[in-house]
Amino acid sequence: MKLFNYLSLKKTVRGLAYFSALFITACSSHKDDPSPTTSVRVQYAISNVGGAYPSQTTYVQGLADLNVATLDNSKATELSSFASQWAYGGAVYLSAFGAPATLTKYTFDATGKAVVAGKLIVPGANTFSSVEFVSSTEAYASVGGGLARVVKFDPSTLQTTGEINLSSVLKSAAASTYYLGMKARDGKLFLGVQYFDKNFNPLDDIAHVIVIDLATAKVDKLINDSRTSNIFLAGSSVSGFAIDAAGDLYIQGQGSGNAPSGILRIKKGSTDFDSSYFLNLKAATGKDCSGLYILNGLAFTTQIQDPTDPYEFNGPNFRYYKIDLANQKSLGDLGSSLPNIFGSSTSIMRAFDNQSITFVVSGKSENSIYTYNVASGAIAKKTSLTSGTCTGLDKLN
Q1: What is the pTM of this model?
Q2: Where does the signal sequence lie (predicted)?
């Protein structure tokens, strides 16, 4: 499972060049009488990636709010690789590509600077592909690099506390297997799995999800649905798992072969796909889609504009779309004035409150953070990033 080899390859063949710079500023001209340090209460964490594969750098920093017209990397902490970001409590966790798989925890000091608070290392793996937090002492991470397992760890100490063996769901015909996207609910962990042949084509056109019992740390079963396929979204910069206010779990498949992209449902209290529900995204929007985010009954996804270029060899090729989950229909383009984005690698959307969606536009000539007001439909730009591509945006609590 070489997840980030694959993700980095997409960036390479796409021909993107990410440029980033680190500016160092001095806050006093009097060495013997330095200015007092301003205390910052960090509420948001943001990371962006600069450079071209394999010489990429991730910059992570904390912000008091998003009311910043322009943001550079002058106060950011560097990681010498592409890294995915997850957040829990007052910390962020970043997984950079490269063996051994390392998940680095960052907290923020009084100046807002990200500082290393610990590392979780799994020898034999290349990276962490998905991370799910259950509590302050319980979390799970799927690992890449050929290991068929999920690691259980304590987020407070970053100590491994167990593991879940996934060998029972391996398929002998699969040349490679990826565990991408996960969500914990009611004592179960739902984990997306995708099988590929030696040419990196889907082994079958079926959606597969592993159901894991957390109390016993064992696989309950593998559930399948042929109405869509290709559960291949990691949940960091592109998400495919979401739970609504009723506790129902929705899972987005990107589609392959004759199976369209679509949204499946596992109702609260159940561990099987709901046979009465399926939202065919290709039929609803006119084209296949990727990603899933939910707020107040609305769902948000990205539509692939040119179906022959899903990995964006020719530039940004995705647009944000609104979806009515209950009535299983498209509500159209999020905003016609918005540019196409590089959605195959980053289509970040976050519900930081009950009124709006905060989302990232990483386009051909733009790297910005926007908000969308659900009630009014108003779109407003919040912050422009001066370099790199935003790959992580989270609110801390």
Answers
A1: 0.89
A2: 1-31
